[in-house]
Automatic annotation (TrEMBL):
Organismal lineage: Bacteria, Bacillati, Actinomycetota, Actinomycetes, Pseudonocardiales
Protein name stated in the entry: AsnC-like helix-turn-helix protein
Protein's organism: Amycolatopsis echigonensis
Entries under InterPro entries matching the protein: Dimeric_a/b-barrel (IPR011008), Tscrpt_reg_AsnC/Lrp_C (IPR019887)
Domain named Transcription regulator AsnC/Lrp ligand binding: residues: 6-76
Length: 94
């Protein structure tokens, strides 16, 4: 599974609608509106790099109001949730 973080700039008046439209796409896990250099940050999970090519320019990039995207591919996760779940594998009642 490939995880990517997509930074998305959107026309200001379209942010809520664009965020919801992106969140509704298959393979999009979360969408956050945020302050700073970008308007939205989306986490996507796909099976292959080719799927990123279909999803990001092909679907996210075509959502009304989206101006541009920058994609960062994750190599490894260091989140506590991932670590905790790894240690629960094979443990009864976990």
């Amino acid at each position: 599974m490939i995880t990517a973080i997509v930074l998305i700039n959107v026309e200001a008046e379209e942010i809520p609608q664009a965020a919801q439209a992106i969140a509704d796409l298959d393979q999009v896990s979360e969408v956050y509106s945020c302050a700073g250099d970008v308007d939205l940050i989306a986490t996507v999970r796909v099976q292959a790099h080719e799927d990123l090519a279909d999803l990001i320019p092909g679907r996210i990039g075509k959502v009304r109001g989206v101006l541009d995207t920058v994609t960062h591919i994750a190599f490894r996760s260091y989140s506590r949730a991932d670590t905790d779940s790894a240690f629960e594998i094979g443990v009864e009642g976990a």
